[in-house]
Amino acid sequence: MKRFLIITLALLIGIAFTSPGFAQTKPAAPEKPAPEKAAPAKAEPAAPEKPAKPEAAKEAEKPKPKPVPGFEGTVEKIESGLLTLKYKKGVITFDVTNAKFKGYKGAEDIKVGDKVSVRYIKGAMTVTKIAGAKPAPVKKAKKGFKDIDTNNDGKITIEELTIVFVNITPEDFKKFDKNNDGSLDEKEFKAIK
């Protein structure tokens, strides 16, 4: 009975590893047409010309880009040699401490938001950069008079102004303080911009 179970188990394992999911065939190389020899020209009636294909059909004939093998997705997190990747089927984490990099010098160059491919090549993990993260648009917050006047007294002191304009000196402040009262009113503040 044990022999029967062992043989059956070995047979099932053998079938599992030879199924199409594990043993994929390599794609066949495209066949090149044999060069045609020039035949002597014969007088044949002219064949009617075929109508031109519409542009939509021409666009459909363009070759599609080849998919990158492995796990392709967007970097969600990178820390302590662990790369967390979000891909079509979910989220997966890789240990990239001993990985080879293409498009990066090392793991420290990978940024959150980068589009990468992670795969095994010749027994080693390879991380390939597909596209860098798109930088978020920087919005400059315009500071108005009321935003800078933190105590709402209708005047901006040098202390309030240095929060926004870090490099302003007391001499610069005095240049803008036209009435020399030690603070800027709204009219004087607009002159700074």
Task: Note down, in words, how this protein is organized.
The protein has 193 residues and is an alpha+beta fold. Among the domains are: 71-131, OB fold (Dihydrolipoamide Acetyltransferase, E2P) (Beta Barrel), CATH 2.40.50; 145-192, EF-hand (Recoverin, domain 1, Orthogonal Bundle), CATH 1.10.238. It contains six helices and six strands. The protein has helices spanning 2-18, 55-60, 145-148, 158-164, 170-176, 186-192, and strands at 71-79, 82-87, 90-95, 100-102, 115-121, 124-131. Strands 3-2-1-5-6-4 form a six-stranded mixed sheet, with no helix packed on it. A hairpin with a 2-residue loop joins strand 1 (71-79) and strand 2 (82-87). The radius of gyration is 35 Å and the shape is rod-shaped. The termini are far apart.
Rounded mean pLDDT is 74
| Secondary structure: number of strands | 6
Largest sheet: 6 strands, mixed
Count of alpha and pi helical runs: 6
Helix content: 10-25%
What is the subunit arrangement here? Answer: single chain
Spatial sequence of strands, sheet with the most strands: 3-2-1-5-6-4
Share of β-strand residues: 15-25%
Could you tell me the radius of gyration in angstroms?
A: 35 Å
Fourth-tier CATH superfamily name of the domain at 71-131: Nucleic acid-binding proteins
CATH class of the domain at 71-131, anyone?
A: Mainly Beta
Examine the coordinates and then state which fold CATH places here, giving the name of the CATH topology of the domain at 71-131.
OB fold (Dihydrolipoamide Acetyltransferase, E2P)
Poorly predicted ranges: none
Q: Based on the structure given, which CATH architecture of the domain at 71-131 is correct? A: Beta Barrel
Please state the overall shape, judged from the principal axes of the Cα atoms: rod-shaped
Distance between the termini: 92 Å
SSE order, as H and E?
HHEEEEEEHHHH
Computed structural class: alpha+beta
